[in-house]
Each structure stands twice: as C-alpha cells, then as structure tokens.
Write a sequence for this structure.
C-alpha cells in the first residue's frame, strides 16, 4: 500500500509543478501585447499548464532513468527544470 500512496503523491506533485510553471510563464513571461495576442488565438492558461505538465513528466523521468539524483526532492527539482525548459522552448525562444 505504501508504493501506491507514494506513486499517487508523486503524480500529484508532478502535476502541481507543471501547472504552476506553465501558469507562471503565461502570466509573467510575456509582455502585455503577447498575452493579448495569445488570448485572441486561444493559447492561454490551459495550454501553458498542459505543456508545463508534459515537461514536468519529462524532467522527472529523465532523472529517474539517469539515477543521478535518487532523493524525491531532487527528482522534483528535475521535474521543475524539465517543465521550465519545455515551456521556454515551446514559446519559441
């Protein structure tokens, strides 16, 4: 039962990290004109949150595969870095 609860907690934390990173990039990572253009074209909070979640999963699992950082905190930092890098690259920078 402990493995199940650990897996659920990891899933929730990864989802939260990705959502928060995506929303922060959407709110504070662009100029006012960029936000207005994105709102007109339909690229908004939900899209950025989903891209952040995808990046969070990528970063987390890359750290798990490499096995370099075995503690959960370091895996979550890998998820944070993966989400930030994915959203940053997705924006076209």
């Amino acid at each position: 039962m402990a493995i199940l609860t650990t897996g659920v907690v990891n899933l929730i934390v990864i989802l939260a990290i990705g959502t928060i990173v995506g929303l922060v990039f959407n709110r504070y990572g662009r100029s006012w004109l960029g936000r207005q253009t994105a709102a007109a074209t339909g690229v908004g909070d939900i899209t950025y949150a989903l891209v952040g979640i995808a990046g969070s999963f990528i970063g987390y699992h890359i750290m798990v595969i490499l096995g370099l950082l075995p503690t959960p905190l370091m895996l979550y930092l890998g998820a944070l870095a993966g989400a930030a890098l994915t959203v940053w690259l997705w924006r076209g920078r």
In short: Helices lie at 2-28, 32-41, 45-66, 72-90.
